[in-house]
Design a protein that fits this description.
The chain has one domain. The chain is about 85% helix and about 0% strand. The protein contains 19 helices and no strands. α14 packs antiparallel against α16 and α15 runs antiparallel to α16.
């Protein structure tokens, strides 16, 4: 019981730390996005995102290995095997260096060919696009080598370091904005790409320095374990299949939109994607805090506790996301208009559909982590990856038939719903979790929370004139509605007690410091 209580406290503390970090990062990111859009212009902003996406397409190699690294480091910590942990970190670092070299080769060959022959880029911006590609290749390589260090920090649950370094990165990106204005006599798109690369180099140094100082295994020992190398790359090889599908439907859809509609639509997609990412970070904070616990409970053989963590993670993730997104879903245009002033066409439709997809995907994370914990990823990755791979060809057919640009995001939503059902079915025999329990503990409560909490804000939205007053009334009503319904309908008795006690403790501390 003590261990469970300690884990809950650690999860709550880490989540709070990451929420503070996210609020800070989110406000800076949204502000910088607005300034960069206005400074670069819609066309150049679209060029930067679509050209950078070409390099990101090769990132499936790194994403798959990052998943393997996180799983193996966390599993070794759960087992308490420090020698194995040291071997895993060094092997992961060696693999990521090889991946970084491969990404550079692919970017300088396939990436260049694709940019010059397949993409719609204004002729007078091709030189700038070339340098954006070069900087994107190097930035990606630097981020890849940082992955083992990031994974080590998360596995050790040192979220304060993770939060502080992220805040430093956000501040540096804010500095970039003002430097971009200062270099007004030069090509701003090229300058922006170079400055982003410099920031990535500095952040890479911060991660490696912290890990080398605090974690014994993070010091490179020139260890070579052939069997571990094969085991980790095999795990990553099967994980790669789903990551390939994720890259294809994300960056592939971006390129499809460029081919059919041009860079202006890419700008709309980029804006919607940034808002989606800002919202997703809030859920990622909670999930990052609880993911190591899911893996560690499996490593210890505590399956009942693992099941509880899966249920809790899925429901809490959904509630927190719905808490944030309900007012955004209703007041999408107003928010974008205030933020950007000039809203690229299709941005509203893109964002609304992407948020609905994100709500479904928030329930998938604990299942994905649970599957990775078992190490039996072959069947899972093939099935889920195949479902998600269908997003791109189906979207291409829709666009060929003359469907609007937002149709590709509807396809993504449908495929994500199918993939979620497949995840539940495949995970049942691996960790002994029943579909009935999953539906009772998650979907029934989630459905009730959505229906009951959306009634009040929706009535206000459709019955008030479109103005600032409606925005504030809808937002406030949404916050109270989701919060109250989630607390009384979406949580069980133990969870309500835990949330109540944490709220009381926070209020007591705030009162103490105020009147100390």
């Amino acid at each position: 019981m003590t261990t469970t209580t300690d884990n809950n406290k650690r999860i709550a503390k880490n989540t709070l730390l990451l929420y503070v970090r996210t609020l800070f990062v989110m406000f800076i990111s949204l502000y910088t996005s607005r300034v960069i859009l206005n400074t670069l212009g819609v066309s150049d902003f679209g060029v930067y995102n679509v050209v950078g996406g070409v390099v990101t397409m090769f990132g499936f190699l790194n994403s798959a290995m990052a998943t393997a690294t996180q799983r193996y480091i966390t599993f070794a910590l759960g087992k308490g095997d420090m020698l194995q942990l040291q071997k895993i970190f060094n092997t992961a670092l060696q693999i990521h260096i090889l991946i970084a070299v491969l990404i550079i080769i692919l970017g300088e060959t396939v990436g260049l060919w694709f940019m010059y022959t397949q993409m719609q880029i204004p002729a007078d911006r091709m030189d700038a696009a070339f340098w954006v590609l070069q900087c994107s290749i190097m930035s990606t390589a630097v981020m890849i080598i940082s992955v083992p260090y990031n994974a080590d920090i998360i596995a050790h649950e040192k979220m304060s370091a993770f939060a502080y370094i992220s805040i430093i990165e956000a501040v540096l990106k804010l500095v970039i904005v003002y430097m971009l204005i200062a270099f007004s006599s030069y090509d701003k798109l090229i300058i922006y790409a170079f400055l982003v690369l410099i920031v990535q180099l500095f952040i890479r140094f911060c991660y490696s320095h912290y890990c080398s100082k605090h974690f014994h295994e993070a010091r490179y020992w020139h260890l070579w374990d052939k069997s571990l190398f094969k085991e980790m790359t095999k795990f990553a090889g099967w994980s790669m299949f789903e990551h390939i599908s994720a890259v294809l439907f994300s960056q592939g859809l971006n390129i499809l939109l460029n081919i059919f509609f041009g860079p202006v639509v890419n700008a709309a997609r980029a804006i919607a994607f940034q808002v989606q990412n800002a919202i997703q970070q809030f859920i990622a904070n909670f999930q990052v805090s609880i993911n190591p616990q899911i893996t560690k409970t499996y490593a210890k053989g505590e399956l009942d506790e693992m099941h509880k963590l899966i249920f809790r993670s899925a429901r809490f993730s959904f509630y927190m996301l719905f808490f944030l997104t309900l007012p955004v879903l209703l007041e999408t245009y107003f928010i974008l208009q205030v933020w950007l002033k000039t809203v690229p066409e299709d941005t509203v439709a893109f964002l609304r559909i992407m948020i609905c997809t994100l709500l479904i995907y928030s329930l998938a994370n604990p299942l994905m982590v649970a599957n990775q914990s078992t190490g039996n990823v072959k069947k899972y990755q093939i099935v889920c990856g195949s479902i998600r791979l269908m997003i791109l060809p189906v979207s291409y057919i829709c666009l060929k038939l003359g469907c609007p640009a937002y149709s590709v995001f509807i396809v993504h939503f449908a495929m994500e719903a199918i993939a979620q059902l497949a995840r539940m079915i495949m995970l049942r025999p691996l960790i002994g979790i029943r579909l009935k329990d999953y539906f009772i503990n998650i979907y029934r409560q989630v459905f009730l929370v959505v229906i009951l909490s959306a009634i009040g804000p929706s009535v206000i939205y459709f019955n008030m004139p479109d103005n600032v007053l409606r925005f504030f009334v809808v937002s406030i009503t949404s916050v109270f509605s989701v919060g109250i319904v989630a607390y009384f309908v979406g949580l069980n008795n133990n969870e309500r007690v835990f949330v109540k006690n944490k709220a009381i403790n926070i209020c007591q501390k705030m009162f103490y410091y105020k009147f100390k």
